[in-house]
Structures are given as structure tokens and as C-alpha cells.
């Protein structure tokens, strides 16, 4: 009884209990107390390892706690030496963003998947200088390379070059050329075949692997620039729209190439035409290489006299991203003689007057206002035109001399 009274005085709540139940409750209470004590001791030991830092920063006070490090492990005396020839390197963001070797071993499926990745955070945590990716879709060598060399001279860091030749081409550009080592893994391409678009998507995907590339221009070995690099660069970087030509044409060479098998995904009213030679920004390039809906329809049903290269991008871009394109091409071509190919400019047709005429086009809308520069590039210039072009074009176009 005394014992009970003593306890009752110490623990007033216990006085409500009586009889055998009291002992059961007491036991439970003691167990609970012991558990609490253990937990308390354990936690206080944990908190001994935490140091509290009071930070006073520009008048703002913040409390930060950081676990102090556990005592360091004893030094490992038998550390393995680094493997010979391999220096252990800490990787920074720059290393992680380095694009893979231009001649990588990825197949198309792997390449497109890798290239479709895009950062969710829009701001770059470093100074990103945007580049223009020049994508050369060629049969063999870049035959007008000496002219392009002069165009690129002095603008390193503002452009990157990708060349997709026919796989059977075994030549290579000399060291020191801007085209040296810029060949990407390529596959066979036939004029008018859908594999032409596969090559364009391959070029886009390879160029997307470089996070600095912002604008993407498709050119062929028969294309030339019409302005110097700084004008081209500013025109593209300042452009709010991409340049994928889009128009609706009746008749056999327009809507006549549509295949009913594309219904209901693509209706005849959706069918569009446009030049193969495009220019687009990074966002649109990502959409093009990620298209798993419309492109397969072209792979299956755009055969024979369908000419995917003149219809896939105009139709797809117009249907899904019509507001993102100026609907005009930046590459000048002369179709005045009619037929399936534009005019080729051989030797004496290549004159200063011709280039001036191509440069001063007509009236175009650039960035929402009128601009007299409609074309930045022109075709078709066969290899024989190189001599004359190199002789007067750099001066006429104010290349960096
Ligand atoms: C390149 O291909 C041609 C024939 O297509 C062949 O005659 C030549 O030897 C090849 N050159 C090299 C370096 O492989
Ligand atoms: C864009 O246009 C402005 C004004 O026309 C010019 O000052 C600037 O250098 C251009 N280029 C870029 C890359 O913004
Ligand atoms: C055309 O656009 C270019 C590039 O943005 C700009 O520098 C030039 O001033 C524009 N020309 C006209 C006539 O607006
Ligand atoms: C084009 O538009 C962009 C974005 O609105 C602007 O930064 C740029 O200065 C404009 N360029 C011209 C030549 O109007
Ligand atoms: C590019 O051409 C324009 C005139 O067309 C000229 O004012 C400018 O200085 C040239 N740029 C370079 C880097 O030579």
C-alpha cells in the first residue's frame, strides 16, 4: 500500500487505477518509459554529430545544419595504382555535354532516341554561344568546298558542319579544311525516295547532339551562300520563325501525289508541297526527329512518284507546327525553264549580275516586318562553276578577307 501511495504521489495519473489492473498498467508504463529513454539517448547521440551553423548573409539570417563527417576511415595503404595510360579525371558539365565522336556506332534508332532528349530547365547554367549547323547532304565530296571555306573563315565557334555523303564515297577532306572529319555515318540515298528524308533526319539528329546548335540549315554540294557569314548568322539567330516552305498545289505534281492510304491520319486537304532545302530552329528540329506518327505513314505509303522530300516536311510541319514556319525557303532556285529540276548555272552563266539578282530577291516578311533579303543560299551550282565563284563571289559578298 505504501509502495502504491509513493508511486501514486510521484505519478498522479496512477491514482485513477486500482486492483490488479494497476500492476498491469504500471508494467506497461515502465516499459513505455524505458523505450522513451532509449529513444531519447539514441537521438541525442545522433544530434551530437550535427553542428548548427548560424549564417548571417547580407542581413539575412539562416540556420543551416550539416552533419559533421564521421571519423575518416583509416587510410588505405594498399591503394591500387590507376591503370596505365588512364588519368582519373573529374567530369564537369562541359565534359558531359561534349557530343560523341562524329563517326559514332549508334544505329538510326539509337541515334534518334538519344538526339530527342532535351533539357527541361530552359536556362543554361553556362554561357551558351548559339551555333548554326550546316548540314551537307551530298553524293560525294562537297564540290564547292573552297568557296564555303572562305565563307566560314574567321567565324570558328559560331557554326558546325555535318556531311552525309553516299556511303560508297571513300574520299576525305584534307586536314585543316573545315570539312575534315565532319562526315557522319551515312546510308544510301536515291533522288525522290523516302530514304532522302531518313538522311535529313540523320543529319538533324547528329547536329542535335551538340547542345550549342540552335539553327539547322540543309544544303547540298550544289548550294552556295549569298551573303557573308555574319549576315547569315544574324538573320537566322534573329528569326522568330523557321523556314520550311509550305504551299498547297492542285494538279498532278501537287495534290496528285497524295496517297489515299494515308487517311485518316493525313487527309488530302492536309497535303502540302515545298522545297526540300529547309532551315529550322532547335525546337522544330527536335519535333521532326521525334515524329513517330506522320513519318512512318510516308515510309509506308509515299512511294514511286510521291517524292517525300517535297511533301513530308511541308505536310507535317504545316499540320502540327504551322505557326512556327515562315512557309518560305531561304534557298533560291530558278524554276523558270520548267521540268523536274531547277536551272544549273554553268561557267559563263555565273556572273556578278546573277548573284546580285539572287541576293536582292523581292519582298519578304522577316520577323514580322518587310525585308528585302529573301534568300541566304542558292542552287544549283555544279563543280564547274567553282573557279568563277571563287574569283568574284567573296568580294561581292564581303566575305571576311
Ligand atoms: C575509292 O574507291 C575507288 C573506286 O570506287 C577505288 O578505285 C579507290 O582505290 C578507293 N580509294 C581508297 C582510298 O580506298
Ligand atoms: C539581331 O538584330 C539586331 C538588330 O537588327 C542586331 O543588333 C543583332 O546583332 C542581331 N543578331 C543577333 C545574333 O541577335
Ligand atoms: C532584314 O533583316 C536583317 C536581319 O535581321 C536586318 O539586319 C535588316 O536590317 C533587315 N532589312 C530590312 C530592310 O528590314
Ligand atoms: C526579331 O525578333 C526577335 C525576338 O522578338 C528580336 O530579338 C530581334 O531583334 C528581331 N530582329 C529583327 C531584325 O527585327
Ligand atoms: C558582311 O557584309 C556586310 C555588307 O554586306 C558588311 O557590312 C560586313 O562588314 C561584312 N562582315 C564581315 C565580317 O566582313
From TrEMBL:
Composition-biased stretches (Pro residues): 69-84
Key words of the record: Glycoprotein, Glycosyltransferase, Membrane, Transferase, Transmembrane, Transmembrane helix
Topology versus the membrane: Single-pass type II membrane protein
Transmembrane segments: 21-45
Disordered: annotated segments: 63-84
Molecular function terms, GO-annotated: glycosyltransferase activity
Gene Ontology annotations for the cellular component aspect, listed alphabetically: membrane
Protein's UniProt name: Glycosyltransferase BC10
Species for this entry: Coffea arabica
